[in-house]
Design a protein that fits this description.
four-stranded antiparallel sheet; Rossmann fold; Alpha-Beta Plaits; elongated; six-stranded mixed sheet; 14 strands; 2 domains; alpha/beta
């Protein structure tokens, strides 16, 4: 079942482009990565899905309900961590979290306690005394305290140190095994690769690719490095070869096509070393942006 259904969603701010004809689905229980550089339209998409802003055209549904007409109902089961967090500076962390919890039915005291311990958040400090990273931790606890069914994370790790980032990822995986669907927006590709199974790439407000990460890597080019024994350099002037570089008897290139053609070529000479790797998400991403 699709938790998020987006159909030709478009948003203009006056004459400025937000997003154009964006269409994708996010299935229940998946961690969906949404990647693109700053200004590509990631936050605009999230704000439209939360109905914090309204579309110029197109439509979107969350939990099968239209985001514009049923926004308040939808938001009860959503957790949201924005890229920038702002709070009442004079409040204590615990008071802010209790105030947030009061918008949702039930008692969330135990949950606040557990999440704060996981994220090493000091509940009795004032917001004004917190570093940017600690304010981000408040946002993480606030987004999760009501046990949402769907979680929107917009550049969630900025400000967190590497150890806290790892704890955060563990926490998100744990929530996901509990059945929470996660929409993970980031420009840090390594994070998306670690956490997500499927990814959408957005460029200048338009979706350029939606694919399983493994499929993206396998259907893209391969990275080949080859060291040949002896003075006969191999010529790799063949279809599918790009970015060819040779140094100290080692040849590096990207190859897209039937890998057997490369293997056949290699088998005709004495090879001392060869590696054939899948590209990183970063390299695939650059390929879409060049």
């Amino acid at each position: 079942m699709s938790v998020i259904e987006v159909n030709q969603l478009t948003k203009y701010y006056g004459k400025s482009r937000g997003i154009v004809d964006v269409t994708f689905n996010v299935e229940e229980g998946e961690i969906f990565g949404f990647i693109g550089p700053n200004g590509a339209g990631k936050s605009t998409t999230i704000r439209l899905l939360l109905s914090l802003i309204h579309p110029t055209s197109g439509s979107a549904k969350v939990f099968g309900m239209d985001v514009v007409s049923r926004g308040p109902e939808i938001r009860r089961d959503i957790g949201y961590l924005p890229s920038e967090v702002y709070y009442y500076e004079g409040m204590k962390v615990i008071d802010l979290l209790k105030y947030s919890a009061s918008f949702y039915p039930g008692d969330h005291t135990q949950r606040i306690q557990e999440l704060s311990e996981t994220m090493e958040l000091e509940l009795h400090r004032r917001i004004s005394d917190l570093s940017y990273g600690n304010k981000k931790k408040v946002g993480i606890v606030q987004g999760l305290l009501h046990s949402p069914k769907l979680l929107f994370l917009d550049e969630p790790t900025s400000g967190l140190d590497p150890l806290m980032q790892r704890k955060f990822f563990d926490l998100i995986r744990k929530e996901n095994t509990r059945g929470v669907t996660v929409f993970f927006s980031s420009h840090i590709l390594g994070e998306v690769q670690r956490l997500c199974t499927r990814v959408g790439i957005i460029r200048e407000g338009r979706i350029v690719e939606i694919s399983n990460i493994r499929t993206l890597q396998q259907n893209n080019y391969k990275k080949v490095s080859l060291t040949v024994d002896g003075s006969n350099p191999l010529s790799f002037d063949m279809p599918g070869v790009t970015n060819l570089q040779a140094e100290n008897g080692t040849v590096h290139f990207f190859f897209k096509g039937d890998i057997n053609a490369v293997l056949q070529k290699i088998s005709s000479v004495q090879v001392t070393d060869v590696t054939i790797e899948e590209p990183t998400l970063e390299e695939i991403f650059m390929h879409y942006y060049e």
